[in-house]
Amino acid sequence: MTTEIDLDDVAARAARAARPFAETPPRERAAALVAVADALDAASAELIAIAMRETGLTEARLTGEVRRTTNQLRLFAEVIVDGGYLDARIDDADPEYVIGPRPDVRRVLEPVGPVLNFAASNFPFAFSVAGGDSAAALAAGCPLIVKAHSGHPELSRRTGEVVAAALAGAGMPDGVFQVVAGQQAGVALLKDDRIRAGAFTGSTHVGRLLADVAASRPRPIPFFGELGSVNPVYATAGAVSEDPELLQGFLASVSGSAGQLCTKPGFLFVPRGAALGAVGETAATLAEHRLLNPGIGRAFEERRTAVLGAPGVTVLAEGAVRVDDAEQRFATPTVVEVDLATLREHRDELLEESFGPLSIIVRYDDAAELPEVQRELFPGNLTSTLHASDAELAGGGLADLVDALAETSGRVLFGGWPTGVSVTSAMQHGGPYPATTSDATSVGTAAITRFLRGVAYQNAPQALLPAPLRDDNPWGVPQRRSAAGRSSGWGSLTGVH
């Protein structure tokens, strides 16, 4: 546990590092991220062994997660060197500007300052100490403090040591990366005026509490929380009849990593009477999997009991939860079925996220009512998915449903399953509340912009401009320049005269 005296020193060190780190040349900061990636790869065998013991996740899953984590760091290094994320804009002084004489104005995105990241439990590498939020903050040039998750304390400590040593070896300023432990420490730092942004991945309840703390400070700060999502999937009659692997894909997505994924499909909508196959028999072939920790196990057990006991529920695969002497839970998939009227009538019991291997199949009568269902019952999701035949997609009859999915989700899938989030420049992993507290993304290169803010410099001398805005452009970043004299031609490209 970090003491209050320690916390003051932690915040002070991060604050002292903010300006030197922000001014670190891009190639040096990028090299530091690559050094962290290399160090994590070198220590992966040790780290994976610790993670397996603390989380119950498999070696194959964790090996893939380390690969994702380290290559994400390398991807962000490329973004830093490119410099386009800084969005440098230069408007030259223009006495003939049509709106009135224009001064020299230059705008760039600058680091917000020290960031506090609350690590997640379900991705002990990819969303923890060195995960996506951490990589984005460091790439942005922000000193980072990670509040370690209690579900994997030893892994957090050891990962933190590896990351800190790599950053120091790369010449980064003292205080640019620190790890603290304990709920009280996290809340105290979130209230500290030296912290300028927060990030969180976890439950809706805890995330909302932290978001409220960030908003109620004397000087409120941005708080980027990934909270909860049920990720509905809609299958048309054509999809059910043409895709013999639909059931297997659904169950694999529900049960992967014991259903402890933020993108797990919590609901599958299929037409009434459509034959999915033997859900119970197929689910029975899937092996039990340990849940991450006793707290998550107890919460899943309670949630499962509530769903199984809800009125109008038909059990297709009852599944089971086994408890060992250490209070760890081991679960097999639970799948139930309801009709749409029951889901609406008992939404209080059924719509809450089930963090574990449980999902609800919903039978509907008319695909035309699905857009209203999405807007009414699922107003905020990380993902929504549509399974339909090529003929149904080409016919245009699903356009309103697709519109509803886009209005209520950060990522809309056509086919496939939402578990497995690719780290790319175009990825959006965020959505309307309660999926996240803002529509920013926590996955992909756009995640960096969460920890930047726009600053404009007017009539500034070259010597006092940030490097990305200087005429000699020492960092070699893209600059969007508006030269004098262009405003007289506004509108000529529209074809309107």
UniProtKB/TrEMBL annotation:
Key word Oxidoreductase present: yes
Region annotated Disordered, chain positions: 470-497
Residues of the signal peptide: none
The organism's place on the tree of life at top rank: Bacteria
Residue ranges with Low complexity bias: 480-491
Domain Aldehyde dehydrogenase: 3-370
Keywords on record: Oxidoreductase
Name of this chain's protein: Aldehyde dehydrogenase (NADP(+))
UniProt keyword annotation of Transport present: no
CDD domains: ALDH_KGSADH
Native source species: Agromyces lapidis
